[in-house]
Amino acid sequence: MTTVVAPAGRPGFLSDAELDDEVERLYTADLEGQGYVAHLTRVWAPSPEALAVLSYLLKRSTEGAGLDQRQRAVLVAASAATWATRTARSPGEPGWPRSRATRRRRALAGRL
N or C terminus of the chain with fewer C-beta within 10 Å? Predict the structure, then answer.
């Protein structure tokens, strides 16, 4: 078993999770694949079980909707862009959604 410890003075805003077998597996996979431990890995490191559950749900949802990886990537990017645009506005500003029902209807109609 390889011990993975962040160097002292490492830049970043996330502290290291308590090391156990799962966290070490996440860190080691990053180090072997890209040479460093990514911030996103550090975000999920305190709860690798949550990452596993989310990954499973995303996979099942993608399969259930009949999406390929490209379509899923486009959907994720469009959702992130929409979320960022909406959260940058204040209630009452033009473009602020009036109600959840309206957003749902537009999303279902493919015009989100």
Answer: N
| pLDDT tens, per residue, the chain with 112 residues | 455 555 555 666 667 788 899 999 999 999 999 999 998 899 999 999 999 999 999 899 999 999 998 999 998 899 888 877 766 666 666 666 565 556 666 676 665 5
Q: Is the dihedral of CA 95, 100, 103, 105 positive or negative?
A: negative
Q: Are residues 31 and 50 in the same domain?
A: yes
Compute the distance between CA of residue 8 and CA of residue 17 in angstroms, rounded to an integer.
15
71 and 111 part of one domain: yes
Which three-class secondary structure state does DSSP give residue 7?
coil
Residues 59 and 71 in one domain: no
| Helix (H), strand (E) at residue 106 | helix 100-108
